[in-house]
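Action item from last meeting closed. Structure (350 res):
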């Protein structure tokens, strides 16, 4: 079977990461060309790969099955129009577009061209996320009422073009897109309302902190919180249901599920003294009331994204990242920005 020929437009950090990932599929994929307007980015292109100073040159000189677009955010629509005109299947980095209207135009031109068009939402295959999705899907903590997704960093400042608002800088456009996509892909319900607090803590022009609350129509309350200047790095999940709680601490997915052998029929009359003072409702549980079980095992990696994409190229299955899913994320982001400005909840999918 002939290999699929790939090209990469934009050979900066993510372009290099894509090249590294494609190397995991030597029997299926051949990276034949990369392009970047900065010649310094092309000096370490893989041996035998053609280099070009522009997207136009790459498209004009190569016969490609797929192009990966890894250029700065505002240029995505221009690049997608070029690949659509050349009828080349296209994978675009996230965020797909700077607005819903731009994305709609991308979908229109790629549909008219009859090509595959998808977005690189590879974090649907994050290990920690897939464990929590398994807990949710299999009702391992009963009917879920709350989900928390937290990501805290210590570096604070944005980098490169991510410091410029007009370039789609800031954390909402960066990690925020992934965290929102994960939550929407996990909870099988429409969103009833969105409330967000979006802040510039130490970056003057772009956001570096946000907290987002989703009320889903199925009763789930979801929270996403990210901060780049917490000085206590952390990746964590919490899921609460009427049959238990699930906790993850770290991208490696370490954590547990906690159940109770019985629920209290009433609060005991005896007051318990704790470090916080006298209490009844929040006193320590009696021995044996709580018990733990391990989190489910999952076997996933970011390579799964490409495995599914290769199947779509062969016509064996549908694309995993569908345009309507990406459009929903972008629409939610508009509501988040509006809520961040007005400090009011935004009614959404009504």
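Sequence:
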């Amino acid at each position: 079977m002939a290999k699929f020929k790939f090209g990469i437009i934009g050979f900066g950090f993510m372009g290099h990461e894509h090249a590294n990932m494609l190397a995991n599929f030597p029997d299926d994929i051949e990276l034949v060309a990369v392009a970047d307007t900065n010649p310094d980015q092309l000096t370490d292109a893989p041996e035998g790969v053609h280099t070009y100073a522009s997207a136009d040159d790459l498209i004009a000189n190569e016969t490609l099955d797929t192009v990966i677009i890894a250029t700065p955010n505002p240029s995505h629509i221009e690049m997608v129009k070029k690949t659509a005109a050349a009828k080349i299947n296209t994978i675009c980095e996230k965020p797909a577009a700077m607005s819903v209207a731009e994305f709609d135009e991308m979908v229109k031109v790629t549909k008219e061209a009859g090509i595959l068009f998808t977005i690189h939402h590879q974090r649907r295959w994050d290990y920690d996320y897939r464990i929590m999705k398994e807990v949710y899907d299999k009702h391992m903590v009963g009917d879920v009422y709350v989900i928390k997704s937290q990501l805290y960093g210590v570096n604070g400042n944005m980098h490169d073009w991510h410091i410029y608002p007009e370039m789609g800088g800031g954390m909402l456009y960066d990690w925020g897109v992934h965290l929102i996509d994960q939550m929407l892909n996990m909870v099988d319900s429409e969103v009833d309302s969105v409330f967000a607090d979006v802040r510039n803590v130490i970056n003057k022009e772009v956001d570096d902190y946000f907290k987002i609350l989703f009320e889903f129509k199925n009763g789930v309350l979801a929270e996403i919180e990210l901060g780049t200047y917490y000085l206590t790095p952390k990746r964590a999940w919490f899921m609460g249901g009427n049959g238990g709680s699930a906790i993850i601490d770290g991208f490696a997915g370490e954590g547990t599920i906690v159940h109770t052998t019985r629920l209290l029929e009433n609060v005991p009359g005896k007051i318990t003294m704790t470090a916080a003072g006298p209490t009844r409702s929040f006193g320590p549980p009696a021995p044996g009331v709580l018990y733990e079980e391990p989190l489910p095992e999952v076997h996933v990696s970011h390579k799964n994204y490409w495995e599914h994409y290769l199947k779509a190229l062969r016509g064996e299955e549908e694309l995993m990242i569908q345009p309507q899913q990406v459009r929903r994320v972008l629409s939610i982001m508009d509501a988040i920005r509006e809520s961040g400005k007005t400090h009011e909840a935004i009614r959404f999918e009504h």
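Note appended to the action item: The mean pLDDT is 94.
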